[in-house]
Amino acid sequence: MDKWRQLSPELRRKKIIHALQTIGAVVVTLVMIFPLYWMLITSLKTESEIVTMVPTFWPKELIFSNYVDAWTAVPFLRYIWNTLYVTFWQMLIQTVVGVLAAYGFARGRFPGKNVLFLIVLSAMMIPSQVTFIPLYVLIAKLNWVDTLSGLILPETVSAYMIFMLRQNFMSVDQSYLDAGRVDGLGILGTIRYVLIPMCKASVVTVSLVSFINGWNNYFWPKILSKSPETRLISVGLAQMKNIWQDLSGTGYYNTIMAGVVISIIPVVILFAFNQKYMLKGYSKNAMK
Amino acid sequence: MNTLATSTPAPGTAAGVPKKKKRRRKYKKQNFLEFLCTVPALLLILLLNHYPLVELVRYSFTDWNMLRTDYDYVGLTNWKWLVTTLKTNHVLDSFRVTILYTIAHLVIIIGVGLLMALLFNRMTKSFAFMRSVIFMPHYIAMSSVAIIFLWLCNENYGVFNYLLGKIGLGPVAWLSSPVMAIWTITLTASWRGVGYDMLIFLSAMQGISKDYYEAAKLDGASSVAIFRRITLPLLAPTTAFLLVTQFISSMKVYGVVDVMTSGGPARSTEMLVYMLYQMTFEDYRIDRASVIAIVFFIFLMIVTALTMRWTNRKVNYDA
Predict the structure, then answer these.
(1) Which of A29, A69, A74, B310 could pair with B130 as two cysteines, CB 3.0-4.6 Å apart?
(2) Which pLDDT does position B9 carry in this prediction?
(3) What confidence score (pLDDT) does residue B150 get?
(4) What is the mean pLDDT of chain A?
(5) A23, A62, A31: which is closest to B160 by C-alpha?
């Protein structure tokens, strides 16, 4: 306390503000994380414990059988595999098509380039939530409704990704490209050995964002998959909730929460390993 | 890659003085290949974005109802339907609800996001950890977030009502009251979205030169004045970016409505995309849904153009 009194008023004020900021930040973080905590804790409770009038903030009895129940009540593995399959191909096609186009628009010199790039930009203004009816008809004509190919098709190109990659490719100095060309690199070689290594952070970020968006997509899976064979995890969980809600007043939320936890494990792992990369990528892209 | 380090001067000089014609032809071939690189993307974009838009306009002049494979052109019938039954067809209500949701959602995520950016603006490890915790919901599917909140907001056993009861409030009819349901949806979506806005604001704040702050401090400016006169104006471009991009993404909200309320109770949360989905896949009225989709699209265009013009005038790009 003596030490505290020796400080100048200004310094004292600063220290108080500092402490208040820390307390505020911790409180906000706890509030924000509470829904996730509640999800996890519910998934470990028994059926009778989730319907008590006074909810328990720590389970009286930790059980893991909800995870087994969620896994076996619906073809969970099938859903996960479908989601992985669709998301993987979406990401791959989007990235390959995107990198090629970004190279053409950033580095190419051909007539009509600006007009063609405007076409790409205008695609960002046409959300698929507006055009889903004709797209559905198109997919139906291809006989791809209720198939995994049909689920992949609507997300095979991302104008946003082309835009971001083009920005990054444009910022690479021309001398590197010239040097590569002197060494005999063609277009694909230039992309592979010069542009991608130099813009690695951006390329990784946009593909991971594409993966996460694909994994979390709900709109197209809801429209296009009609049978459990092609169902993706997001729709599968929502359906599980719908059915069980009707079955019982409690809705078996402990089992559903276990399903949700399983479904977010892949993205949380991706996040944990790449968070520095990703957070930087997100904000860098927004600044452009 | 390692050849790059030892690379020689610019091209052309090494080859001596080549014949001009041959060189030009080579460039032409190169340019054509560069053009080819953009072709897959262009074809896919035209197929998946522009062609459906044209088709949508065509459908709006037909009487197609999806149960049949054939259809006739019926002129402006569907457009007339939209205008003449405006009082009973719920389209206006749907627009109203969607716009209400969008405005509330944007105010919360941008406003609270900015406040949280100020609160979390300290570059230590523990703060970085807390920031990434707050950002995490952004990675979880909206449909899963909706399920989590359904349980939190459960009117009998939900923890929200329990906690409110503890401080003498509630119970709140989170989803069974037509007045409340839209706010519950907004709360759910905002919990997921606010971390992203915080992150974007934070990195914009990091980008502001320290000189401004030091100069202001020398002049004896209070921290409130510094925030209002320096930080806030210099964050305008970031705010504009968030406004434009998130306006569109909020207007096309679907998953959270489908999972939490299915448009109810009493159509109070029937947002536009949900309505379009119902008309297409429940009522099979492709013709009428197309008309609404076109109106929706035009509305998005106009508001985006206005926002961009307005922010261009107001925004300070000096930062």
Answers:
(1) A29
(2) 43
(3) 93
(4) 88
(5) A31
Residues of chain A neighbouring B258 (CB-CB closer than 8 A)? 218, 222, 238
At residue B11, the pLDDT reads 45
Which of B120, B110, B121, B101 is CA-nearest to residue B240?
A: B110
CB contact under 8 A, B137 and A55: no
User: Nearest C-alpha of chain A: how many angstroms from B87?
Assistant: 23
Residue B26 has pLDDT above 70, yes or no: no
How crowded is residue B4: how many other Cβ atoms within 10 Å of its Cβ?
Answer: 16
Using left for φ > 0, alpha for ψ between -120 and 50, and beta otherwise, residue B220 falls in: left
Residue in the structure block whose two tokens are 């919990």: B191
- pLDDT tens for A135-145 read 999 999 999 99
ipTM of the complex: 0.90
Question: Does the beta carbon of A26 lie under 8 angstroms from any beta carbon of chain B?
Answer: yes
Q: What is the pLDDT of residue B6?
A: 40
Distance CA A125, CA A284 (A): 22
Contact criterion met (CB < 8 Å) for A193 and B1: yes
The tokens of A191 are what?
A: 């992309």
**CATH class assigned to A76-286:** mainly alpha
Choose, out of A20, A32, A107, the residue to mutate when testing the contact with B (most B CBs < 10 Å). A32
Would you say B170 and B162 are in contact if contact means Cβ atoms under 8 Å apart? no
**Residue ranges, CATH 1.10.3720.10, chain A:** 76-286
Alpha helices in B167-235 (DSSP H): 178-206, 210-218, 223-226, 232-234
pLDDT over 70 at B275, yes or no: yes
Question: Quick check: B248 and A127 CB within 8 A?
Answer: yes
Identify the DSSP state of A181. H
- Decide if A201 contacts A280 (C-beta within 8 A): yes
Q: Is the Cβ pair B42, A101 closer than 8 Å? A: yes
Please give the pLDDT value at position B318: 43
Q: Do B45 and A215 touch (CB under 8 A)?
A: no
Q: Does A100 touch chain B (CB under 8 A)?
A: yes
Mean pLDDT of A99-125: 92
Q: Which residues in B lie closer than 8 A to residue A222 (C-beta atoms)?
A: 255, 258, 277
Q: Which domains does chain B have, with CATH numbers?
A: 11-59 (no CATH), 81-314 (1.10.3720.10)
- Across A51-65, A166-180, B255-269, least confident range: A51-65
Q: Which residues in chain A are closer than 8 Å to B222, comparing Cβ atoms? A: none
Q: Which of A103-112, B13-22, B142-151 has the lowest mean pLDDT?
A: B13-22
CA angle (B273 as vertex; B271, B276 as ends), nearest 5: 110
Closest by Cβ to B254, choosing from A21, A98, A219: A219
Compute the residue count for chain B: 319
